[in-house]
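Chain A, query sequence.
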Amino acid sequence: MGLFFIYFIIIALIPIWAQLRVKSTMGKYSKVESTAGMTGAQVARKILDENGLYHVKVLEHQGFLSDHYNPMSKTVNLSSENYHGHSVAGAAVAAHEVGHAIQDKENYAALRFRHSLVPIANIGSNASWIFLMIGLFSHIPNMLLIGIILMGAGVLFQLVTLPVEFNASSRAMNQVVGLGIINNREERQARKVLNAAALTYVAAAAVAVIELLRMVLIFTNMNRNDD
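Chain A, predicted structure.
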């Protein structure tokens, strides 16, 4: 019982640590104004136009760290602080979201694969625990296996998300440096912001993989005991 308690504490602390890290880093560099003095909205618009994405709109979105690119509506959505702010953090985040728009334009394979996994991952994430719980409490291996397969779809989605996010950050840095949006000193600060944000995806994927492996071990032991 003690080991299970420690296990659940650890998997709970991993995402919390990642969230605290990104909030701390964003809080720090949101107070550092970029030399260019551009708002996040201006940064996004400039990079979009430089890449021929004139049709992609830049919109303000409510909510802290709610920044995202919507491939359906072709919009870059920035949180109010990043949309209006002139900070290094805002510039980095805006450029990152535009990085996704550039991926969309270029039909980046990992992004397309992630989009194709969305419906499967949604079903898997919502339904997996029903089968897992039935399998665990009723001691029915086949029900547990169905839950593991569905859970695996969600884990695959999170793993595919990692290269998509890292690639968007790489594109972002190339754009802000190449277009002179940030200087050499600010480049290091912008990288810290993007690396901290990436930690949230890494933490989520790590927890998902660990949980999937735990269920596989339980399934293996259940089958062994039945034999």
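Residues 184-226 form the longest helix (43 residues). The chain has one domain: 7-226.
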